[in-house]
Amino acid sequence: MALIVQKFGGTSVANPEKIRNVARRVMKKAAAGNKMVVVLSAMAGETNRFVDLATQMQKIPDLREMDVLLSSGEQVTVALFAMAVKNEGQDAISLLGDQVKVTTDRMHAKARIMEIDGDLINHHLDQGRIVVVAGFQGVTEDGDITTLGRGGSDTTAVALAAALQADQCEIFTDVDGVYTTDPNICVKARKIDRISYDEMLELASLGAKVLDIRSVGLAKRFKVPVHVRSSFTETEGTWVVEEDNTMESMLVSGVAYNKNEATITVSRVPDTPGIASKLFTPVSDAGIVVDMIIQNTRAGDLTDMTFTVPRADYERAMKIVNEVAAEIKAESVKGSQDIAKVSIVGVGMRNHSGIATTMFNVLAREGINIHMISTSEIKVSCVIAEKYTELAVRALHDAFEMDKDNLPVEEK
Amino acid sequence: MALIVQKFGGTSVANPEKIRNVARRVMKKAAAGNKMVVVLSAMAGETNRFVDLATQMQKIPDLREMDVLLSSGEQVTVALFAMAVKNEGQDAISLLGDQVKVTTDRMHAKARIMEIDGDLINHHLDQGRIVVVAGFQGVTEDGDITTLGRGGSDTTAVALAAALQADQCEIFTDVDGVYTTDPNICVKARKIDRISYDEMLELASLGAKVLDIRSVGLAKRFKVPVHVRSSFTETEGTWVVEEDNTMESMLVSGVAYNKNEATITVSRVPDTPGIASKLFTPVSDAGIVVDMIIQNTRAGDLTDMTFTVPRADYERAMKIVNEVAAEIKAESVKGSQDIAKVSIVGVGMRNHSGIATTMFNVLAREGINIHMISTSEIKVSCVIAEKYTELAVRALHDAFEMDKDNLPVEEK
Question: Which uninterrupted H or E stretch holds B156?
C-alpha cells in the first residue's frame, strides 16, 4: 500500500463534470489499496474573476485581503470534490491550508512554507478517507491566510508529499509530460521519461512551465519523486527524480526558450569598484529581477555592461538605468525587446566537453548571431534575435539528437 | 465613542459598487469616532450558485462539505469590503469565523454559537481598524467550519454585539424597519419605532422575515439593543429593545400572517392516555415541525385532534398520520392546504382583557370563519380560509388602530 499525493490544476477541475472525472480517477487508485491525498487548485477562471473584483475595490489590492479572497477559490473545489467522492460511496474529507496547518511566513501573495503538520491528514487517511487538501494556501503563525504565489498548488503537493513521506507525488496537468522542447515549434520534440531535479530546475526557470520551479527545488531537497502527467489520459508522463546513470548518457536533455526578456546595454562605463552595485541596486530596489549579466572590459578603464530584464519591466528599467548612467557618466544606454534566450540543458554536460562549442557552431551555421552567452554546469544560454527563436530551437534539437530515446543503462 | 456592530445582508453587498457604498457608510460612522465592527453575508446569488454546484456533485450534499463550500461566500465579501475601506485611506481587516473564534456546536448547516472570543476584534479595534467579520460561519472545537443556517449573519452580528458588549447592533436590510403588518396587503401599515424582544419573537416566528428569530432570542438574552433599518436610506428603522411603558399603551403592536401551513384533522380518536404521543412521535421523527395543536373532547371517550404542519411537508405528514390513524382506529383523517394563520401580537395584551374577543368579533363581522384558535400571553392566532387572509389583516389593523403612532409615555 503506497501513500500517493496527487495534484490537479484549475483546468482539471474547471466544472462539476471534470471534478467528477478526477474524483473517479483518484477513487480507482484508492480502491487499489493506496492512501490518497489530493491537492486541488481553484476552478479555472476563478482567480481571474477574483482579481477583477479586487481591482474594482482597490487600485492596488491589499495583499493580505487578496489572499483571503483568492484562497476561497480552492475552498470551493475541495468541498465539491469531497462531495463527488462521497456521492459514489467512498469516504473523503476536505481540509484547508489552516486546517492542515500549512504554516508559512508572512509574505502575502508569495508566502514560503515553513512547516507542514501531517498529523491530521494521517489521522483521516488511517480512517480510510481520501484527504482533499486546498492547494496554494497556507496560514501564518498568527492565523492569517497566505497564498504561495504562481504554481503554489504544485508546491503544496510536493511539500505535503515530503511531510507525509509519500511514495510519490503526481502532478496532473494539461500536457502529458516534460518535452525535450516546445512541441508547438519543433515537431520532433519528444516526451522525456526521466529527468533529474537539476535539469528540471533549469528547464522550469527557462520557461518550460510544466512544473513550478519552487516545487522542483522542494522535491530535490526532500528527494520526492515527482511524476508530471496528463489529467486527460492514462499515459505515463515524466518522472522528475534524482540523477542517475541513464541521464548522463544523454548529452542534452532539452532545449528551452524564453521570449519574455529584454536586453539593456550600458556602454563605456568607468570600470571602477562599486560600479555594478551602483547600477543594479536601484533596479532591484524597484522589484525588477535581472537575469543574465555580462560585463566586457574595454581598453582604457572602460567597460560595457549588458543584462536582461523581464520585458514587462523594460520601460521602468530603462528609465532607472538612464538616470544612473548619467550619474556615473556612462556613454550611452541601449536596449532591445526583440530578443530571445535559447538554452540547452543536460546533466550530461558535466562529463562532456565541447557542448557549448557545438551550440555556437549550430547557431552560426544557421546564420544566427549570438548577443550574449551565459553558462552553468548543466546549461548554456544564448541571447539571439527573437525572430530566429524557432529556427534555433529546431536546429539545436536536431544537432543534439534529442528526438532519440534515452539510452537504457544496460546498453551503455 | 460607541462600539457599534453593523450587519449588511447579501443584497446590500451584491456587487462592487454596492460594497463600496456600504463601506463609505461604515467609514462615515467610524470617522465620527465610533469603533466599528461590520458583519457581512455572501453576495446575493452566491449561495444559490453554490447550492447548484453542490447538487451537481452529490444528490444530498454532505453537510460538513456544504459548510466548507458556503462559507467561502462571506470570505469573498469581507476581503472585498476591507479593500474598499483601505482604498479610501482608512484601515480595515477582514476576519473569518475561525479567526475570530466563533465557536459553535457540531450541527453542520444549523450550528449554534457556543462562545465568541472578542480579544482579536478588540485588538484590531484598538489599532483603529474597521473590523470586517464574515457572518453566518463558525468553527467547531475540532477546527471544522460550520454555518449557522438561515439568517445566520443576523445571529453572528447580535452574538458579536453581546460578546463585545457593543452599544448597539444595527441590522441593515432591504426594508426600512418592522411594520405593524405587511405593507403589500395593507396600505395603512405603519413602521414601528420601538418593539420589545418578546413581540419581535412572536412576529418573527409568525412570518415577518425582517430579523432572524434566533438573533432576537440572543438579543433578548444579552439585552443587545438591535436597530433594524434600510441599507438604502438614512431613515431610522425599528429598535428592538427591552419592554418599556410606552409599549404597553398599545393594545396590539402588529398583525402577522402565514400562508405556508396546512391543517390536518384526525376525527373520533379514542381519548386514552398516550394517544397524542402515538400520533405525533412518528410525525416529529420524520423531521416535520408541528405548530398549533388543538384537541376537542367529544362525547363518549372520543376526541378530535387538529394540528398544523408546514405546507411543504403536508403530503408526507398525511401519509404518516393516515397510517397511525388506522392503527389507533380513528374514524377519519382530513386535511386542508387552503388555510392561513393570522395573528395579533402585543405586550399590551398582558394588561388588557377582551383583546381576543375583539379579534373574534372583527373576523365574524367580515364573515370569516375561524377554524382554530391558539393564544399565548402576548399573541392570539386564528386559522382561517386562505382566501380571507388580506381581508382579515386589514380589518384587524383597522380595528386595533395600528396606523396610529405609539402613545408617548408622557401622554399616558
Answer: helix B152-163
Angle subtended at Cα B407 by Cα B404 and Cα B409, rounded to the nearest 5 degrees: 170
Number of domains forming the structure of chain B: 2
- Write out chain B's pLDDT in tens, 412 residues: 899 999 999 999 999 999 999 999 999 999 999 999 999 999 999 999 999 999 999 999 999 999 999 999 999 999 999 999 999 999 999 999 999 999 999 999 999 999 999 999 999 999 999 999 999 999 999 999 999 998 899 999 999 999 999 999 999 988 888 999 988 899 999 999 999 999 998 887 666 667 888 899 999 999 999 999 998 888 999 999 998 877 766 778 899 999 999 999 999 888 787 888 888 889 988 889 888 888 877 777 788 889 999 999 999 999 999 999 999 989 999 999 999 999 999 988 887 778 888 999 999 999 999 988 888 888 999 999 999 999 999 999 999 999 886 443 333 2
Beta carbons of B58 and A83 less than 8 Å apart: yes
- Using the 3D structure, point to which of A151, A174, A197 is the last residue of a domain: A174
Q: Identify the CATH number of the domain in which residue A93 sits.
A: 3.40.1160.10
Whether residues A64 and B143 touch (CB distance < 8 A) is answered with no
Q: What type of residue is A390?
A: E
Position B234 in a domain: no
Determine the Cα–Cα distance for residues B321 and B302; give it in Å rounded to an integer.
Answer: 17
C-alpha A101/C-alpha A81 separation (Å) is: 20
Helices (H), A222-332: 245-248, 275-285, 314-327
The CATH number of the domain holding residue B346 is 3.30.2130.10
Nearest 5°: the CA angle B214, B216, B219 is: 110
This prediction's pTM = 0.82
CB atoms B94 and A68 under 8 Å? yes
For residues B167 and B275, state if they share a domain. Answer: no
Q: Calculate the CA dihedral of residues B390, B396, B397, B399 and round it to 10 degrees.
A: 140
Q: In sequence order, which ranges of A63-148 are alpha helices (DSSP H)?
A: 63-87, 97-100, 119-126
Question: Same structural domain for residues A249 and A156?
Answer: no
In a domain, residue B344? The reply is: yes
- Residue listed under C-alpha cell 401551513: B261
Give the containing element (helix H, strand E) for B67: helix B63-87
Computed on alpha carbons and rounded to an integer, the radius of gyration of chain A in Å comes to 24
Instruction: Measure A99 CA to nearest chain B CA, in Å.
Output: 7
Question: Is the CB of residue A47 less than 8 Å from the CB of residue A153?
Answer: no
Please name which of A341, A342, A343, A339 lies closest in space to residue A386, comparing C-alpha atoms: A339
Domain holding A326, by residue range, is 244-412
- Rounded to whole angstroms, the Cα distance separating B24 from B17 reads 11
Helix (H) or strand (E) segment spanning residue B103: strand B102-104
Same structural domain for residues A249 and A166?
Answer: no
Q: Is the ipTM of this complex over 0.85?
A: no
B75–A56 CB contact, under 8 Å: no
Selecting from B20, B62, B78 the residue whose C-beta is nearest the C-beta of A82 gives B62
Q: A379 in a domain, yes or no?
A: yes
Query: Rounded CA gap, A410 and B10, in Å?
Result: 67
